[in-house]
Amino acid sequence: MATPATSPSVITRRGVLAAATGTMLLSxxxxxxxxxxxxxxxxxxxxxxxxxTLELSGPGAALGVTQExxxxxxxxxxxxxxxxxxxxRRTVRLExxxxxxxxxxxxxxxxxxxxxxxxxxxxxxTLAETSMSVIGVAQELRLPFVSLAFGDAITVPxxxxxxxxxxxxxxxxxxxxxAQLIDAEGLRRVVLLAEEGLHGNSGVRAMTGALRTxxxxxxxxxxxxxxxxDVGRAAExxxxxxxxxxxxxATAPNSGAAARALRKAGHSGxxxxxxxxxxxxxxxxxxxxxxxxxxxxxxSSLAASTVANSSATGRAYRDLVSQYIRRHGAYSGFxxxxxxxxxxxxxxxxxxDSVDRGRLRAYLQNQITDGMAGMYSFTPIRHSGxxxxxxxxxxxxxxxxxxxx
Length: 405
Hints:
Helix content is 40%, strand content 20%. By secondary structure, the chain is α/β, with parallel strands linked by helices. The chain folds into two domains: 15-169 and 306-390, 3-Layer(aba) Sandwich (Rossmann fold); 171-303 and 392-403, Rossmann fold (3-Layer(aba) Sandwich). The termini are close together. It comes from Micromonospora craterilacus. InterPro entries: BCAA_transport (IPR051010), Leu-bd (IPR028081), Peripla_BP_I (IPR028082). Belongs to the leucine-binding protein family.
């Protein structure tokens, strides 16, 4: 059994890149700067306007509401001093819309925001389907869009995703760590229970290959129905395969519902989650017994101790968690992807000395940033920039996510 530890490769990667990007992070967040003993203030009347289409209601609300809360806190922190863009210091203004977890509505909202001359970039879409519906609009309007969703198809093929970026981990990186973990636990056959849709499709492709490479048998692949479907039947099919463990590849709240259904159907063995499960809802009381002892692969922000306390990122992360708890109660550690998306856009504006959409896109795709969820390294040929070294192994113990390695 693995013991709690911090991955040396993560520390090394963070240490090297943080040294190169520390000034960038401080400037973009508006922290640590002084001018003649006085704090710099935003220039009146000048803004960096970012549109956001989020799942504040509907099936995606378990993820979307948390991201809205984090955005509010992070925007206040940035606007304390503003973002230095050329010879101006701009405040960030968010235009947030509830897409109600409806891809068609998300596309209409993206169109409405993108056709406004004063909107410089777009973020959002915690569900793969809503993010995918925004992509065509963002491409047509040449509007930089940073997606918060899971699903590799969001950023590929690159020729059709020139203005599209993603802050969540790639399925292949997650699957490799899951397969290695399953092998290390001594399991020889597992079932993959993957939700319907783009995120589940990415998981099926990635896990199939990763398990084969690790020498672990895939007993069966079962698809979870969309919200409101018969989760119990899918769980029964998974349990009938009599495997050593079950990998649930789904976003909250589907992850918790699948765990409950699996336990009810008689699965008492190992349970594994992809990062989409790591939301506050998954650890709530109605899921507590079902998910206790379950494993997950997730970026390092899930364990605050892995974010260096002396770094700018560490201080910003502690401030974020403190503010979140004060305003909304317990903070489960769900990675603040929206905060990082905001940071990436603000940093691009600072580096570009401009809020021009084309220049923002150019500086997004050439950016290395140590974010709160993990390390990002975007390049012209890679728009899903979460570094694989940012991922860690976690287990639910006593109703909380605890890092193993």
